[in-house]
Amino acid sequence: MAAKKRSGGKGLRIAVIDGQGGGIGRVIVEKLRKEMGDSCEIIGLGTNSIATSLMLRAGANEGATGENAVIKSVAGVDVIAGSLAILAANSYLGELTPAMAEAIASSGAIKLLIPLNRYKIEVPGTIDEPLPIQVDYLVTRIRQIYEQTFLK
After folding, report:
1. Domain for residue 6, yes or no?
2. Is the residue at 103 inside a domain?
3. For a FRET experiment, which of 61, 108, 135, 136 has its CA 20 to 30 Å from that of 26?
4. Has residue 134 been placed in a domain?
């Protein structure tokens, strides 16, 4: 599924979702901003204010916190990025609610998820790479989506 080109838009709208300490989201936002510059709009969605704050400081254009913010925001983005745990109800030690997981999974956005083997979720066949390398793969894929959508 390809992202749809919007008229008057700022390129891809990317929601980065994270919780707990916000470290994964921060790394994703930093690398996206470095690679994509201002060609995309990044929305940092945190399950708590610490995660949101870190993503904003890392370069997200906007940030919002909590269940309603996640549910409403994922409906209007082209790409959702985060760890695989954002699809699992009650992950992040219960911070990610079942309603959030359902909204993320049901969104029409392309979901690019890092397969971190945490929260008793394992993805056999994936390579257990350090987080920075996995984020590099994610950013490369977002760059490809951007080029296929906006630079045709």
Report:
1. no
2. yes
3. 108
4. yes
